[in-house]
């Protein structure tokens, strides 16, 4: 077993023994380098009530290089491309550090949903809306969350 595989096993075991509230991650097709994850939308955000699925692909040289994390669920967010799922988050790029773990990444993404960074946006129109017309941004994000990130029964449950 390689160092990368050992590290990934440790991270997976850590997630199982010390789960993160509102987050989960699992191997996809029993492949240690290919994971799926889900994040619950933060309660104090337009994403509340939604479950957002992620794809995580680890490189062979992990943790020296960051994993590729993309949203599989469509989301209305200035830092996430709704078509490709690409995420503009510094810790997954220039600020990556080998001590970061999937637990820290999932927590960062969950916080990122509640607190976008319009200055590091990949969807400038949404960033501008977030800055200038926040109520319209929030209304659209709530709508997209209901359409793409909630089970049909969740939308009508009280």
What is the strand and helix layout of this fold?
Elements: H1 3-17, E1 23-28, E2 31-40, E3 51-57, E4 68-71, H2 102-114, H3 124-132, H4 134-148, H5 152-156
Antiparallel strand pairs: 1-2, 2-3, 3-4
Helix pairs in contact: 3-4
Task: Tell me the CATH architecture.
Answer: Roll
Could you say which structural class the secondary elements and strand pairing correspond to?
A: alpha+beta
CATH topology: Ubiquitin Conjugating Enzyme
Number of domains: 1
Mean pLDDT: 94
CATH homologous superfamily designation: Ubiquitin Conjugating Enzyme
What form results from the Cα inertia axes? Answer: globular
What is the strand arrangement across the widest sheet?
Answer: 1-2-3-4
Largest sheet: 4 strands, antiparallel
β content, as a range? 15-25%
Protein name: E2 ubiquitin-conjugating enzyme
InterPro entries: Ub_conjugating_enzyme, UBC, UBQ-conjugating_enzyme/RWD
EC number: 2.3.2.23
Keywords: ATP-binding, Nucleotide-binding, Transferase, Ubl conjugation pathway
Structure, described:
This is E2 ubiquitin-conjugating enzyme. Residues 3-150 form the UBC core domain. InterPro entries: Ub_conjugating_enzyme, UBC, UBQ-conjugating_enzyme/RWD. GO terms for molecular function: ATP binding; ubiquitin conjugating enzyme activity. Its EC number is 2.3.2.23. This protein is α+β, with helices and mostly antiparallel strands and 158 residues long. The chain has a single domain, classed as Ubiquitin Conjugating Enzyme (Roll), CATH 3.10.110. The chain is built from five helices and four strands, in the order αββββαααα. It has helices at residues 3-17, 102-114, 124-132, 134-148, 152-156; strands spanning 23-28, 31-40, 51-57, 68-71. A four-stranded antiparallel beta sheet has the order 1-2-3-4. Helix 3 packs across helix 4. The radius of gyration is 16 Å and the shape is globular. The N and C termini lie far apart (49 Å). 28% of the residues are buried.
């Amino acid at each position: 077993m390689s160092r990368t595989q050992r590290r990934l096993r440790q991270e997976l075991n850590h997630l199982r023994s010390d789960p993160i509230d509102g987050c989960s991650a699992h191997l996809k097709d029993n492949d240690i380098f290919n994971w799926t994850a889900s994040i619950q939308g933060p309660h104090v955000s337009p994403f509340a009530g939604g479950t957002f699925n992620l794809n995580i692909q680890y490189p062979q040289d992990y943790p020296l290089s960051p994993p590729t994390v993309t949203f599989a669920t469509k989301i209305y967010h200035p830092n996430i491309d709704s078509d490709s799922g690409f995420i503009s988050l510094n810790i997954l790029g220039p600020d990556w550090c080998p001590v970061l773990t999937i637990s820290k990444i999932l927590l960062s993404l969950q916080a990122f949903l509640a607190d976008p960074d319009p200055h590091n946006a990949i969807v400038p129109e949404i960033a501008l809306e977030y800055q200038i017309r926040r109520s319209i941004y929030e209304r659209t994000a709530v709508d997209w969350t209901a359409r793409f990130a909630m089970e049909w029964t969740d939308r009508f449950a009280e």
